[in-house]
Amino acid sequence: MLNRYEKFLEEFDRELQGYFSEQKKYIKCKKGCTDCCIEGEYPFSRLEAEYLMYGFLQLPKDIKDRIRKNIADLKIAKSNFQGERFLYKCPFLLDGQCALYERRGIVCRVFGLAYLRGDNTVKLPNCANLGLNYAEVFDKSGGAVYLNNPVKKDLRTDKILRSKTAEKYSLECGEIRPLIDWF
Ligand code: SF4
Distance (Å, rounded) from C-alpha 155 to C-alpha 105? Predict the structure, then answer.
């Protein structure tokens, strides 16, 4: 299954490259920017979590130890959390870089793009609030989006992993949970 998923990712990444290129006038993504990994839920399917953890097992021991410590700290923070949505810095973000970039999730791969959801509303990346991607077509005070040409495909993880492309690779993605809940 993980081999098929890797083939699927090759095709999906090519598709995403096309979208990033079409949308480049709104995109401020650059190496070293980690805003999309600092505060989120990071929904991962079982398949993506397995793929990520297979890569984790191959990391050097000191890196694994740092990630394990991040996860343990987050589990404690989550168990003490009283609110509705537990938002956190991804435990795989080390020294300003993803320790498993090649194995990151679908949600990580589509970060930065604005796209149309099934209900025809535009999903903007959170970094529009920080003056980054799509900031020039987003009115923060009123929440309005002035964008004529978002990506015309719903890029949420569940939609992507149940798409025709995923079917072609016979993927079974399993349940989707916030990344921290896989540990
Ligand atoms: S898995 Fe990597 S790219 Fe995805 S949120 Fe975590 S650090 Fe960022």
Answer: 12
pLDDT tens by residue, 136-181: 999 988 888 888 899 999 999 999 999 988 999 999 999 999 999 9
Write out the residue range of the structural domain in which residue 113 sits: 2-182
Query: How is residue 69 written in tokens?
Result: 């410590």
CA distance 125 to 128: 6
Q: For ligand 1, which residues put their CB under 6 angstroms from it?
A: 37, 42, 90, 92-93, 98, 104-105, 108
44-71 pLDDT, tens digit per residue, is 999 999 999 999 999 999 999 999 999 9
Segments in the chain forming alpha helices (H): 2-22, 46-57, 61-80, 106-110, 157-161, 164-168
Counting the structural domains of the chain, the total is 1
How far is CA 122 from each of CA 37, 79, 92, 138, rounded to the nearest angstrom? 21, 33, 29, 11
Ligand 1 atom nearest residue 103's Cα = 1
Q: Which atom of ligand 1 is nearest to the CA of 40?
A: 5
Give the angle subtended at the CA of 159 by the CAs of 152 and 113, to the nearest 5°.
45
